[in-house]
Amino acid sequence: MVIKNIDAATVAKKFLVRGYNIDPKAAEILCKSGLFSDEIVDKICHIANNGFIIEKSVVEEFLRNMSKPKPKPEPKLQEEKKIGETSNSLKIIKDITGKSSCQGNVEDFLMYFNSRLEKLSKIIRSRVNTTPIAYAGKVRGNVSIVGMVNEVYERGDRCYIRLEDDTGMITCVATGKTAEIARELLGDEVIGVTGVIKGSSIYANRIIFPDIPINGNGEKKRDFYIVFLSDTHFGSKEFLEKEWKVFIKWLNGEVGGKRSQELAERVKYIIIAGDIADGIGVYPGQEEDLAIKDIYGQYEFGASHLEEIPKHIKVIVSPGNHDAVRQAEPQPAFDGEIRNLFPKNVEHVGNPAYVDIEGVKVLIYHGRSIDDVISKIPRLSYDEPQKVMEELLKRRHLSPIYGGRTPLAPEKEDHLVIEDVPDVLHCGHIHTYGTGFYRGVFMVNSSTWQAQTEFQKKVNLNPMPGNVAVYRPGGEVVRLRFYGE
């Protein structure tokens, strides 16, 4: 419903409750347009992406696009499947789409952190007999506790951890190798500590992470292959059109030798882990890097390229921080207007999403928190993203740091806890390639289909585009290079 006779201050409040600030001139333009509504606010927030301020140019571009006639989607030959519906080969196990209920009030934050503490404490307690923090001082000898990391600080060669549960808070003192582990704690994560009580503190001799058990992934052998992609950035001037066409030819068995063609014939699934479109207003000066400056145009362009994928291949698409969904994680799948642009062999899921592909469990996560983890643990780098993913599995959380670069929605349940151990963890986001195994879980960080942008040059980000992982569950991993060869 269009809201009439609205002033700029009210417009600003509408955006503020959604976590955005709007430039006063942009607010005035909306007032004068006579088109202001809650639905329009939501759409402008979508295209604003990660911008702190919605500028005048964003609103003007949005209003111009509204005046253009929208192409009608092709009629579907069959009724579109609902998110979460089971097919013969694919089942969506966990996905926030259609389930978000957070309002961002104090109660939501309390429930969110209590959910995180409860889920991860339960995992640790299944392995260690723990005592509530408030009663730890009554135990003689070694005592084990579990709680959420409130603070970590150093004094000399000692490292101090402030740990809390729902009964109280305690200081844990770590020295030697235990201190080395403590220095890599990220904050807001849940750990166990075993040690001896001295005074009001516990002197730690062991730090326990939720960690994943050894996974019997090797037993799940399949005769098909899964292709892992991410960060296609359709709409960017730097989108690798030529390389994409070679990739499509490979899928169709038109390039490569006999071994390569046999590999392509057995590809049954493609999973794309976010940043499908390049977005609008995501970083300063992005408009200079855009070939398509209309967000819907970017998705139409992307859909036309996914249309080139052979129809017998199932494509699973998840959003990222450049896409037209809410910025806070977990992110829902694309709305119907965008979904309807894509071919019918495309299944849309949220970020993260936990799916079952013919018995192989895949956890799809765009990977924005990789930036946060690398900034906190000096030994990690963008050159080996699989080592960062190993830390996420070890901590059993996809985004353990609250308040970093990754915005997290205070849902009543923490949906980013890794409760069920996957067979595959698939990430993207950082535009570099890496694969590895951790306790039987195959980890893959997908490359990008975007060459280095001017903005990336300024911040010294060197992408590794056009690298593709092709994986046979329980078997081999093949790396294909479509760029720079």
In short:
The protein is built from 13 helices and 19 strands. By secondary structure, it is of the alpha/beta class.
The tally of strands reads: 19
The CATH topology of the largest domain is Purple Acid Phosphatase, chain A, domain 2
Shape estimate: globular
Strand content: 15-25%
Mean pLDDT: 88
Question: How many separate domains make up the residues?
Answer: 3
Main structural class: alpha/beta
How big is the Rg?
Answer: 24 Å
Instruction: Summarize the amount of helix as a percent range.
Output: 25-40%
Q: Number of helical runs?
A: 13
Spatial order of the strands forming the largest sheet: 3-13-14-15-17-16
Q: What is the highest CATH level, the class of the largest domain?
A: Alpha Beta
Describe the biggest sheet?
6 strands, mixed
User: Which second-level CATH architecture of the largest domain applies?
Assistant: 4-Layer Sandwich
Unreliable residue stretches: 72-86
Tell me about this structure.
With 485 residues, the chain is an alpha/beta fold. It folds into 3 domains: 8-67, D-family DNA polymerase, DP1 subunit N-terminal domain (Helicase, Ruva Protein, domain 3); 90-99 and 214-481, Purple Acid Phosphatase, chain A, domain 2 (4-Layer Sandwich), CATH 3.60.21; 106-208, OB fold (Dihydrolipoamide Acetyltransferase, E2P) (Beta Barrel), CATH 2.40.50.140. Helices cover 26% and strands 22% of the residues. It contains 13 helices and 19 strands. It has helices spanning 8-16, 24-33, 38-48, 56-67, 106-125, 176-182, 241-251, 258-265, 295-306, 336-339, 369-376, 385-395, 454-458, and strands at 21-22, 53-54, 90-95, 142-155, 158-164, 169-174, 190-198, 201-208, 225-229, 267-273, 314-318, 346-348, 353-357, 360-364, 424-427, 434-438, 441-445, 467-471, 477-481. The strands form 4 sheets. It has a 6-stranded mixed β-sheet with strand order 3-13-14-15-17-16, with helices on one face. It has a 6-stranded mixed β-sheet with strand order 12-11-10-9-18-19. Helix 1 crosses helix 2 and helix 2 (24-33) runs parallel beside helix 4 (56-67). The chain is globular. Residues 72-86 have low confidence and may be disordered.
